[in-house]
Amino acid sequence: MTVPKKMKAIVCHGPEDYRLEEVDVPQPETGEVLVRVEGVGICASDFKCYSGAPLFWGDDHRSGYCQPPIIPGHEFVGKVVALGEGAAEKHGFKIGDRVISEQIVPCGECRYCKQGYYWMCERNTVYGFRQLAPGAMAEYMIFPAESRNHMVSVSLTLEETVYIEPLACVLNCTLPHFKTYLLCQIISPYFTWSNYII
Fold first, then answer.
1. Domain encompassing residue 36
2. What pTM was estimated for this model as a whole?
3. Which CATH number goes with the domain that contains 128?
4. What digits encode the pLDDT tens for the residues 85-139?
5. Can you tell me the distance from the alpha carbon of 36 to that of 189, in angstroms, rounded to the nearest whole number?
């Protein structure tokens, strides 16, 4: 597959300042995965960021979480189109695989990551809000080397795959005996309860 040099992307510049722009297609570096985005959801946090909520833009009591200019979007699915050096071995992917990435890109170095609680990472990088991880409201995106990624069954529809991330959040909060990273397999047609209960 030929990857173009330019792509269209929504770029967040500030509250209520989101623009459709032509930007460079990112190039995967060591351990990184280049994905052609098939679909992206719009989360309540995307709407709050757009609307100017203080959590994202700051106020008298805190600095903002969003680092503009940034491509938003953390609920997504896509197909692998290029792999940086060592990425195939690191992530277990090949060109053409249908994939998702967990919304948090952990550092792997902080006390939470070292104890296995990567979702509590002190760096707290979520796709689409921080410069380290531009999101999926674009034709292509990078899964950073530190990202936690999963293959998705081609038997799932596009609509079903975009809901994997929000469903993972629900399961993480309501079913603590399930491991969220197994969600791709949980909702596949080959699901059996005994495979997933700890």
1. 6-155
2. 0.85
3. 3.90.180.10
4. 999 999 999 999 999 999 999 999 999 999 998 989 999 899 999 999 999 999 9
5. 25
